[in-house]
Design brief:
Distance between the termini: 29 Å
Radius of gyration: 12 Å
Strand order of the largest sheet: 3-2-1-4
Order of helices and strands: EEEHE
Number of strands: 4
Largest sheet: 4 strands, mixed
Number of helices: 1
Helix content: 10-25%
Length: about 70
Amino acid sequence: MSEIIFEVQQDEVDGGYVATALGHGIVTEGDTLAELREMVKDAVHCHFGDGVPGPMPKVRFRAKAN
């Protein structure tokens, strides 16, 4: 696995952003995009633990069209 794509939406109710991994059961949120990036890295590590072979997969964000 070399890449995980996250779909990012702005949370219109609570503010901030929500990122959902496509093809994986990973969802996380952050108040800013910078915070969201850090939360995504942490969520990927927590999801796979030590089961991720090699370096952390590259994370790509994709904005969801409304």
